[in-house]
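FAQ

Q: What does a record look like?
A: Structure on top, sequence underneath. For example:
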């Protein structure tokens, strides 16, 4: 059975590879704030997540998404029942918008700024997974051992914020941060209103049990 995770990976990969060799497709889909501000091309919030800078960028995002996507999609089926896949899809798609919205507000009239990639949505899925399974082992290069997700998460956010404040490189760390926070908030809110699951207490219980 083809999961929604694999469907997203396949669609993103096909469009990304097509855009690698077609500059017009890249220009039409990329996140370009002035095009949104002046021409109301709001679709760019979403289409920018379907293209990537190069093969390594694509592989890193899709591999990270695959590792957590399958797990989170399965967990959503258990938590939300028959609506699990729909909720999973809504999280991914809405995270494309939410994660890059602060970037848009900061660069809405910046004609030099462009951004692309699914990193914000991938971060939302990863942190949704961390929230549901807080003791899952995660690695940080170059540390040669795994640490639990509830420790990895805050460290990742702190490092991302520090680097974003320095303003070095071409990586949109803001999208990573907002995507991660949105993933957690989304799960808490939707689980509270759509299910009887108490995921916040479940998170606390797992962490406390791990620390005993």
């Amino acid at each position: 059975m083809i999961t929604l995770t694999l469907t997203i990976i396949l669609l993103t990969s096909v469009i990304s590879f097509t855009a690698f060799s077609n500059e017009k497709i890249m220009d039409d889909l990329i996140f370009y704030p002035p095009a949104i501000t002046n021409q109301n091309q709001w679709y760019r919030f979403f289409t920018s997540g379907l293209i990537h800078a190069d093969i390594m960028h694509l592989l890193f995002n899709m591999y990270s998404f695959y590792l957590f996507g399958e797990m989170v999609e399965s967990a959503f089926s258990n938590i939300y029942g028959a609506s699990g896949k729909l909720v999973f899809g809504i999280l991914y798609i809405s995270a494309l918008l939410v994660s890059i919205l602060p970037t848009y507000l900061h660069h809405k009239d910046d004609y030099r700024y462009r951004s692309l990639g699914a990193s914000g949505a991938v971060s939302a899925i990863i942190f949704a997974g961390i929230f549901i399974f807080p003791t899952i082992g995660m690695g940080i290069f170059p540390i040669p051992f795994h640490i639990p997700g509830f420790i990895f998460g805050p460290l990742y956010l702190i490092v991302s914020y520090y680097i974003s404040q320095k303003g070095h490189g071409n990586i949109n760390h803001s999208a990573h941060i907002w995507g991660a926070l949105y993933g957690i908030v989304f799960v808490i809110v939707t689980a509270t209103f759509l299910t009887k699951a108490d995921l916040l207490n479940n998170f606390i219980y797992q962490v406390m049990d791990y620390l005993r």
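Q: Is there anything notable about this one?
A: The beta strands are 137-139, 146-148.
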